[in-house]
Task: structure prediction
Amino acid sequence: MLELRGVSKRYHDGESELRVLEAVDLQLAAGESLALLGASGCGKSTLLQIAAGLEAPDTGSVRLLGLELVGASEPELAELRRTRLGFVFQAFNLLPGMDVRANVLFQRRLNALPDEDAWVRELVEGLELEPLLDRPVEVLSGGQQQRVAIARALAHRPRVVFADEPTGNLHDSLSHRVMALLVRLVEEAGSALLLVTHSREMARYAQRALRLEDGRLAAVSPDATPEMNDGARDEAS
Amino acid sequence: MSFLLGCLLSHYRRHPVQAVFLLVGVIMANVLLVGTQVINAQARASYAEGERFLGAGPLGRIRPADNRPLLDERQYIALRRAGFHELAPMLRQVVVLENGTTAELVGIDGLAMPRQAGQGAQRIAAEGNGSFAEVAGEDPAPAGGGDYASFSLPPYELWAAPTRLRQLGLSAGEQAVTTGGRKLPPAFATPGQSLGHRLLLDVGALQELADLRGSLSALLVFDITPERLDALVAALPPTLRWVPESDQPDPVALTRSFHLNLAAMGLLSFVVGVFLVYNALAFSYTDRRVLLRRLRLAGVERRRLARALLFELAVFLLLGALIGAWLGTLLAAWLLPGVGQTLAQLYGVYIQYPDGLAPGGLWPPLALTLVAGVLCAAFPLREALSAPLLDRGASGWDLGRTAHRDRRMALLGGALLVLAAALARWAPSVLPALAGMACLLLGAALLLPWVLRGLLNALQRLLPERHAALSWLVADSRWLLGPASLALMAMTLALVANNGLNTMVGSFRTATDQWLAQRLTAELYLRESQDTAELQQWLDEQAPGARVAERHRATLQRQAPAGGPVTVEVVDLPLVGDFMNSIDLLQGAPDAMMTFADGRGVLISERAMRLDGWALGDAVTLCERRGALPVVGVFHDYGNPLSQWMVAPALHRDCWPGREPSGQAIHGISDGPDGDATAMTDSIDWPGVALALTEAFDLEDGDVVDQRELRRIALGVFDRTFSVTRALNLLTLIVAGVGIFCAVSAIHHHRVGQQALLASLGLSRRARGALLLLQWGLLGALSMALVWPFGALLAGYLAGVVTPAAFGWSFPLVVQAGPFLSLAGVAVLCLILAVALPSFKLLSARPGDLLRWQSV
Amino acid sequence: MSLSEPCRWSPPRWPRPGGALAAGVLTLALAACSDPAAETGNDFAVLAQANDAYTQARPGEALAFPRDHGAHPDYRIEWWYLTANLEDDMGRPWGLQWTLFRTAMVPPGDTVVANGGVAATDGAVNPWQNGQVYMAHFAVSAPREHRAFQRYARGGDHGGLRQAGVDASPFAAWLDDWRLESLGETWVPLRVRAAQGSVAVDLRLDSDRELVRQGEAGFSQKHPGGGGSWYYSHPWLQADGTVTFDGETVAVRGQAWLDREWSSQFLQPDQQGWDWFALHLDNGDKLMAFQLRSAQEGGAASYGHAVLLTPDGRRKTAAPGEVSFKPLRRAMVAGREVPMAWALSWPGAGVDLEVEAGLDEQWMDVDFPYWEGRVEVREPAGRRVGVGYLEMTGYGPPGS
Result:
């Protein structure tokens, strides 16, 4: 379903060269949820973007839902994202000037799916968006905005959901609530989830977790060892 | 302070484009302002110097005493023989060239021009060569032949200031051709510019060219002592009179409104530029909020920050104003010949061109720039500095806040419109009219964001909600109104001005064309009059039904009720149906045409009424013999730089008996009692008659002009007259275009996150590009909702209030769909072009880049 | 002459080599760009140009009067040159120069040339373009001050009126109100009038002697090659009348010298200027002498000439090289160094004279400036033996 092989990525910053990813291999099965852990700036977001076709690797191959992303055309990639992928980012998830309903239904409408069906109702209900539907998104609180973002990302039942620090801007208790909702609904949709987070706590919501360090992936059990620290969160805010 | 400035300026290191845009705004505000100021200053300097001939200013002129246009050159020779060596002959003719420009030809005798004692001689002795022009204290002669012989003997030379020569599109040695098909002598540029708009040639050459052998316009009087002048005046025959130079019509009074108009265009452009400055400052301060907050957290007081920012602003303003002044001066040099052309054609005033333009009067534009700059900065500066210290994530372009701002601006705009209406209603003279125009323009601009928001809201309701991309487009456009509204307002300002001016000029042209069609009743016009009886006899044989009508013309100097001496042209009107019908009275006493035909009243042109102040019922004096006569009607006389009085032929004859006709017109009878005559004249082959006439009377090509040709020439002159207006108009539009470009570039910097999201949602680059262009196109198109009505309103203002007050011509407004639509096309195209480049940069980034960029 | 060629027109000077001399010259004559003389910068180049379209002066023909008192438009240049040494009742010296120059800008018949644009309406020539241009110089040397004026005019006939012209009979030469004319049917007596500013002259000129045909029956050879001019003089005129200077009118009387010359070619291209003397000696003799200074030889005389006329009608002409001209004193006048006293020596005729300016400042500050004024003649011992007029041209400012 998603398979990265030997993916490398370097950034050049003037003279110095930053090796972000070094021959990374990664697999994600259908319906599986995987958390990518790592300190801020370690390249986990880059890995997510490469896996989703938003960024191209220097070397290696990325197969997603049967399509080799390396070398695929921009319209092909755009269509893949539109029809079969969903994204939740830390911020800038919503389209200003539009109400909650238009935001939630945006990608469905792009895909010419009907506005109403059981799944949409379930999402709205599950995320408690019913009372917010007619509000402009600018007036929502941070938690509300992320709930809308989750609804928008899942509304067209994507095969894979990419979430990049979806709770990065929220305080602790709200983070747990939003993350729980995200994972539950992804499961209900039958989608796979690639979650990027710096927080071990959040990573626990995923079935599996990998840690990115010095450009390489290492396995981490969800009940990770205590030496992992949570300090990175503060750096990221 | 320097540390603080360094911190603040580091922002521009990261966003150099914002610095450039701020500078561009200041420059744009100054260019046209300085340009028009310099042009006006140059013209004023030229007026102050008075008319000069080969560098010498006459003290006065000897002119025909009876208001004839010409005097017999033998009178000149006789006066010279009597010892009046201070005289020099001058013949002046205005011709229309093939390209539709009018050209004033001044014929002189180079030998008679005054020599500046010793000066020229010493120069020649020193250099061992020279020419008579040099001797006359003038610039050295042109580089062609340049000597007296080439100038005064066939094929002659035509001397022009280099600028004028370029304007005429002539290279050295080339000959311009008049509409009558006459070739002017080979043209050469003088090294200096002081000939100005005039063209200089030998008096004999001009006599031959104009078929005026033996005639002069005036004798110029140079360097004469008061005793000698008394002797001269005593020696003048009764047919000549002395006119001191101070009695010449005052060009300053004549052209005041024109220069005011020019200054107004400069100010308009300044205002457009100020919008751009405000826009750039708003971005610059908004983007530095985080930095400012950090500095304040670090303990820097608000006052110090404000001082540093104001200092930074002053540097930008000064630098921009200087560059703007420099460019404005270049612009002035480029536009000056066109202004000279317009002045020549509208007022018969001929300005000089300077050898080099210096940005004179820099202080007013600079002061204006500083004041406007500080006013622009005040609001965004306060916003940026008063933001709460711990406010996170405020976008600065919050929808609610901008909607509130738009409402306040709309209120202000509405108030300005009310003021404009009041000024138009109660103060119909040039200055308040222009102030009203400014209110109208600003009001329109201020209304724009509010109107656009309303339109977008309506559009959103109308659009099928299901079309996600389109409804995003409309929704996002509303958001855009926050950061982009100022640039759009600047553009609207320029477009309204453009639309208004174009509509005004178009309406004026239509009015002129219709007026010409009505006034040119005769089929053929003879430039050189023939014996009327002989001509009629020939016509009776060759073209039965054709009639000759004589036209007479005289010029008078009169004291205008509005003040100052003015030159009035007196013409007669044949009392034949067609001619009588060709006069449409704007105002008329009861039975005006009857009184006129009986020679008991005078018709005056609109210019004589509006500019010189004569009114219906006033008494005017044509000549002593007939005493005072009442003004019984006012008629349109477009494009005439002179005020005109029209009288019945008998009256003209009474005042100036034995006067040769100035021309003849040949027309068909259509008012005869028998209907056959009309049928007969319809069958006349007029081009054939013209040809046969030329042969039979041994005329030159161009001596017989047909109606259509005359109309074409007149419209050509019209178009040339407004060429500077059009150029300035275009420049204002360009200023606005640059403004939009700058604004879009700045806005796009805020749009990266938006684009990243759209990309991740699966909108392809092409789709996003299309949406961007569509969005700006939509904003441009919607702006038309204001541009069109306000453009028409402005045109009405120009046509109904400003033009009559400035030029003495009024005309009905003609609003045509074609130009309006094409303006919309131009505006949308302009916007899309301005948006395309920054958009291309935005779109060509990969979505990953966009995401990363956004997190920076 | 090509119009596109960026050549500067070099104004010619118009000398009176031969006799009365002249100076000035119309600014107006034609100078061809291709003329090598014009390129060398010689101001008198025009005088050296031969133009076949003009009539050339040739020996063997005879002067005829009154015809030859009038203008000869088929010759390129011509002048009527009058100088007078006068004295008022108080014995103060006065001087008058009254000169009329004529130049043809085009040969007669060429006046209306074909042109690309402005066509003459019919065969008749517009009087402004008749191609004859006149220049007049008028100068009065008051006892302590010299004042000079110039005027220009075209020679066209405007329906019977001419601003400038010369009629043969009855003789009249004029430009504006500056006039030299016969008083009656005969050529003499003459009257000369001119006025400008606060200066005016009105003199009657009479003589019981005949005019003098210079050279060979009036043909005056100017070059060994044979080129020359028609030239006659009247050095015997007695003048009396009034001079007005700054509002003061004084009665004056004295001697006048009239020179008439016309030609189509005069100077060699390498000649730089000339010094010309017209002297009334107290013994009744009239001495005319001139040298043409060569440009090549550092201003040394390239051609000297002298004629001595005695009251009994005899004439003595100097042989080539026989007369010497030596500057004795120089002065700065109008920024140029100009000789103010000369030693004139012609041993063959017993002439050994010193000639000195009556007033240094007699500079003709006209378009083509030169020095001309009254002079006194002395023996080397210092006794005054006559008066006269001296013209000096070609003294440029330093460095030119």
Remarks:
- The first helix of chain C runs from residue 36 to 40.
